[in-house]
Amino acid sequence: MTVLSVNVNKIAVLRNSRGGDEPSVVAAASACLDAGAHGITVHPRPDARHIRADDVHALSELTRRRGVEFNLEGNPFAPARDGYPGFLALCEAVRPAQATLVPDGDAQLTSDHGFDFVRDAQSLRPYVDALKAMGCRVSLFADAHTASGREGIGHAAVIGADRVELYTGPYAEAFADGTVDAMAAQFAEAARRAMDAGLGVNAGHDLSQANLGYFLEHVPGILEVSIGHALIGEAIYQGIDKTIAAYLRILAK
What we know:
Layout: E1 3-7, H1 9-18, H2 25-34, E2 39-42, H3 53-66, E3 69-74, H4 87-94, E4 98-101, H5 117-133, E5 137-142, H6 147-152, H7 155-158, E6 163-167, H8 169-177, H9 180-196, E7 200-204, H10 209-218, E8 222-227, H11 229-238, H12 240-252
Parallel strand pairs: 1-2, 1-8, 2-3, 3-4, 4-5, 5-6, 6-7, 7-8
Helix pairs in contact: 2-3, 8-9, 10-12, 11-12
């Protein structure tokens, strides 16, 4: 079964909007795990707009204690600054089960594209090597909605990555617009290219209860989905327990 890793960034956004410690990122992550989620994802950014370095340490301890996967996302090229030691330094400190490299910058509201592997492969290689030496499984954020993204995906395997995470924002938009068939075919092609290269395939961004089932029916080999924004929003109305249960039912089909 495809596993569910819950991204709790949005809990930190809410906490940071008022300061203090509430709502607790760790308590929210614990509630997700109690409800059956298979792991926790966070994406700390250098500007600390949501998840902070201290959250990373606390969530690492929680996931280690609970025996579940901790997936740490970030841009390896972003320099350290006050309060943010750099992505590799965070990984060195907490040794997440999976490190997902994402090419985002401070000005981006959210991650909105994958790596250009033909251009970036050699620059990424030393980071991939370093993370694997730490014992992390390494996943690279990848585009499936462009021909160049699909064609270049095999380069992730050449530089030693274990997986790619397909950026599913364009899929979610096509699903909402009623133009999903062609887009799903592109994602299926990207997944097959990745698997042919020996890569595992993850997926994430704007996946929801509405669009996840169709995605999994049409895109082969998805090992893990990372879902945050939609899941936390749905939980406002349905509660964490019911929301996680609904996702697990979709994943079990």
